[in-house]
Amino acid sequence: MKIQLTQLAHARSGDKGDTANVGLIALRDEFYPLLAREVTAGRVKEHFKGICHGEVERYELPNLGALNFLLHESLGGGGTLSLMTDAQGKTFSTALLRMQIEVADDEAAKLGLGTQN
Amino acid sequence: MREKIRIAAGQGFWGDLLDAPVRQVEGGPIDYLMLDYLAEVTMSIMQKQKARDPNAGYARDFVNLMKEILPACVERNIRVVANAGGVNVPGCATAVAETARQLGLSGKMKIGIVTGDDILGRIDDFLGRGIELRNMDTGESLTTVRDKIQSANAYLGAAPIVEALHKEARVVITGRATDTGLTLGPMIHEFGWAVDDWDKLAAGTIAGHIIECGAQCSGGNCQYDWQSIPDLANVGFPIAEASPDANFVITKHDGTGGWVNVPSVKEQLVYEMGDPHEYITPDCVADFTTVQLAQDGPDRVRVFGIKGKPATDFLKVSISYSAGYKAVGTLVYSWPDAYAKAQAADKILRARIDRLGLRFDQMLTEFVGVNATHGTLAGQPSPDVAEVQLRIGVRGNDRGAVERFTKEIAPLILTGPPGVTGFAGGRPKVEEIVAYWPALIPKSEIEAKVEILDV
């Protein structure tokens, strides 16, 4: 079944120049392996097609149940140069939470996700 | 040595809640009040102010705040550490000293002034000696913007703050010091940590990172179960309760709103994070993959296990330079066909801009209510959408062209699609852009200076 990341994680995003960072944090510790397996740098790059014009880097923080993504060339030049409403990348967090991932029915059931959808 | 000190954060940025630091002082016991005024963009704003008035260029709010809380700080032995000096630390210190004297605190307190971060006058010397100050993000040579530079500051670490505290400063004012150094400094001063005790320095640095954005770790901007967060109107700003062993607790005053829990602290930990293994500051390299969190009672999160590595031989430098002009205009279109009307207006405006021969480095159209935050990820809006704000921005080096653009927005009301409003603010303002250039410099080039001013 398809599960939206809103059901698995919360997030916060910010900026460094023209790069947005998104920290994706598992809502429960047992969701982290699923996130680490499914939410790859490649999938995040694909998700932000047309928004992120550079590379996507991913870092793992199992101690926090979190993944950190760097989305390069995403903020219209960044800082004061950017004309974007969200020049500081604050809403990239919720934009990432729109992503849907495929979860096998038995794994979803084991994680208590089976009753949703 | 004290077994515990409480460092309270009072400002997450220049422009944060004005009464937050007052509430930190009045709301319960604290030993230090740290105030972070300097985001990357802030230095550019202060530089603009100093260009207009040589006595300006620092956080004026800080002086007003001192007027309000200094007597209580002296009475209760609370010390203040702030990077409020911006691009004019002496000016800020002079204003605070004057305020203190007016409050009858002459002879009762000292002000620590930390300078040495300003390297504007040394740029050509550096370039001449092969210190290139290349843009850390783009690799570009500084020579491409050399004649447009307005300010240049190295990020100082905790060391000069510690020195000022050793010399009994009641208030320590810095310019471009790292946010984290403002919290780490008091810990080193109190607990006597060695300059190469990397794990402890990393722990103090991460404590600083957690509280440097004010309430953003105590319920503000917290996505986790946000509708359950109590009383944000009365949000409590964070306090780091530190011990000599470098374990610490993040908490807030009793009776305040918001919350401090593991999710709220995690959200702040990942904020503006790069490579979590290498959080580089002048004081150490902190490893965020070693941070352990545990709830330790209501609104208390214990932070432990932190590992650090030796500091690098470089300091980060923040250079600001003039980068042209920009302006943003907005109009609001109403139902029916709100989005279609806003799109039509955008086309019309762009055709007129073309006909006028105006050229810009960048021109961006956003439809607020449709795609301004999530772009195409948001999908198509409902055909019934109640209203859409058209938001068009331009940027370029030709001020005249940007100025001309600002005169094309209002006419759309009488010469474009119907159902339009929202132009009460007048023509958009042309804004001079001061942009940010991050670079690295060998530490050996920078010498922080600490002066003590007796009030």
Structure description:
The complex is a heterodimer of chains A (117) and B (455). Chain A is α+β, with helices and mostly antiparallel strands and 117 residues long. Chain A has one domain (2-110). In chain A, 22% of the residues lie in helices and 29% in strands. Chain A is built from four helices and six strands. Chain A has helices at 32-38, 41-47, 92-97, 105-110; strands at 2-4, 9-16, 19-26, 56-61, 66-71, 100-102. A four-stranded antiparallel β-sheet of chain A has the order 2-3-5-4. Chain A has a two-stranded antiparallel ribbon with strand order 1-6. By secondary structure, chain B is an alpha+beta fold. Chain B folds into two domains: 5-117 and 155-312, no CATH class; 322-435, Alpha-Beta Plaits (2-Layer Sandwich). Chain B has a ten-stranded mixed β-sheet with strand order 11-12-8-7-1-2-3-6-4-19, with helices on both faces. In chain B, strands 5, 14, 15, 16, 17 and 18 form a six-stranded antiparallel β-sheet that branches. Chain B has a three-stranded antiparallel β-sheet with strand order 9-10-13, with helices on one face. In chain B, helix 1 packs parallel to helix 3, helix 3 packs across helix 4 (89-102) and helix 7 (179-191) packs across helix 8. Chain B is globular and about 75 Å long. The mean pLDDT of chain B is 96. At the A-B interface, strand 2, strand 3, strand 4, strand 5 and helix 3 of A face helix 2, helix 9, strand 14, strand 15 and strand 16 of B.
